[in-house]
């Protein structure tokens, strides 16, 4: 088994001062360790965007109506969304999986799959967002997508999301799983003003209080009660990727909430994760700290859709090429 010491020795033997490529060397080492080779591969790669709607939107927690989820699904599939553009730019295959939007079913294709658990989750402000069975079904869909991607040759995986209201669900999950005050994990999401933000805090506090007073100690049920179908699907996606020892690039706040679910339910998942960036959402820093992941970028992004993960794909390419293509001091005839 290739170990970290052997990888570091190879890095230090390349024609450069040790550590002079900074964090690129960290990424290179992680790729090598996860793939168990000194010549890691970053292509082909795939990003799967999971879409779903959230019943909590009726509480006024978002600056956008639920109808925008469907419009953005169409935009992504037609190539006009940021995620679509960045996927094309970085040569990353993109697939969208609808696990619970309010959309009418569309015809399945290589790039789209409709497996709606329900037409949106229930309103988590009043009742559990989903049942444990729905949570498990959502996770299974995510696992299937990761398994199929790896079976089709993907060397790097990423997941993203589309769902109006999902920062509210992610805030609830962050507060529960990180055991921090609600105020530490709530941000403006997709442009919420002070009034909407205040309502969002009230809703999250109410949901957390319900869990803490009514929980029977079943963590999966507690997670399900404030989760989104797309978040659960991403968690399953990450778990299966870890089981298959495949590197996964984690996007922003919502994706990282799913990543923490994966780590909680399948210990060691984080070992295969690379955090792409730290978003402008305050809860994201809390989640990254809990996962002990250091993000590559800090660009105040907060779009979601897997855009942060897509942006760092060229960095992974560079890291892999450094390992596989740079000369060593010995091969270059340079004495140290």
Automatic annotation (TrEMBL):
Pathway: Nucleoside biosynthesis; alpha-ribazole biosynthesis; alpha-ribazole from 5,6-dimethylbenzimidazole: step 1/2. Keywords: Cobalamin biosynthesis, Glycosyltransferase, Transferase. GO terms for biological process: cobalamin biosynthetic process. The active site is at residue 305. It catalyses: 5,6-dimethylbenzimidazole + nicotinate beta-D-ribonucleotide = alpha-ribazole 5'-phosphate + nicotinate + H(+). One of its GO terms (molecular function) is nicotinate-nucleotide-dimethylbenzimidazole phosphoribosyltransferase activity. Its EC number is 2.4.2.21. It comes from the Bacteria. It is an enzyme of class 2 (transferase). InterPro entries: Nict_dMeBzImd_PRibTrfase, Nict_dMeBzImd_PRibTrfase_bact, Nict_dMeBzImd_PRibTrfase_N, Nict_dMeBzImd_PRibTrfase_sf. CDD domains: DMB-PRT_CobT. Catalyzes the synthesis of alpha-ribazole-5'-phosphate from nicotinate mononucleotide (NAMN) and 5,6-dimethylbenzimidazole (DMB). Belongs to the CobT family. This is Nicotinate-nucleotide--dimethylbenzimidazole phosphoribosyltransferase. It comes from Sedimentisphaera cyanobacteriorum.
């Amino acid at each position: 088994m290739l170990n970290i010491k052997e990888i570091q020795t190879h890095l230090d033997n390349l024609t450069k001062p040790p550590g002079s490529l900074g964090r690129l060397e960290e990424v290179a080492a992680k790729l090598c360790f996860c793939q168990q080779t000194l010549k890691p591969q970053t292509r082909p790669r795939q990003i799967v965007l999971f879409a779903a709607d959230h019943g909590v939107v009726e509480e006024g927690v978002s600056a956008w109506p639920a109808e925008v989820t469907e419009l953005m699904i169409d935009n992504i599939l037609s190539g006009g969304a940021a995620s679509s553009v960045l996927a094309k730019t970085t040569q990353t295959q993109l697939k969208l999986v609808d696990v619970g939007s309010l959309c009418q079913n569309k015809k399945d294709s290589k790039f789209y799959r409709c497996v709606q658990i329900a037409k949106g989750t229930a309103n988590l402000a009043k009742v559990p967002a989903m049942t444990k069975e729905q949570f498990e079904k959502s996770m299974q869909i995510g696992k299937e997508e990761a398994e199929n991607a790896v079976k089709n040759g993907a060397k790097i995986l990423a997941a993203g999301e589309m769902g109006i209201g999902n920062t509210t669900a992610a805030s609830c999950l962050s507060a529960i799983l990180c055991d921090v005050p609600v105020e530490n994990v709530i941000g403006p999401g997709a442009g919420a003003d002070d009034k909407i933000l205040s309502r969002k805090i009230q809703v999250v506090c109410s949901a957390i209080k319900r869990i803490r007073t009514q929980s029977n100690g079943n963590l999966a049920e507690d997670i399900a009660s404030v989760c989104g179908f797309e978040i659960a699907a991403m968690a399953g996606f990450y778990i299966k990727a870890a089981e298959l020892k495949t590197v996964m690039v984690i996007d922003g706040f919502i994706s990282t909430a799913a990543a923490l679910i994966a780590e909680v339910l399948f210990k060691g998942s984080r070992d295969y994760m690379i955090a792409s960036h730290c978003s402008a959402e305050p809860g994201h820093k809390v989640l990254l700290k809990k996962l002990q992941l250091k993000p590559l970028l800090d660009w105040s992004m907060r779009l979601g859709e897997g855009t942060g993960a897509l942006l760092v794909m060229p960095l992974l390419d560079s890291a892999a090429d450094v390992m596989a293509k740079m000369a060593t001091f010995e091969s270059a005839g340079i004495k140290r």
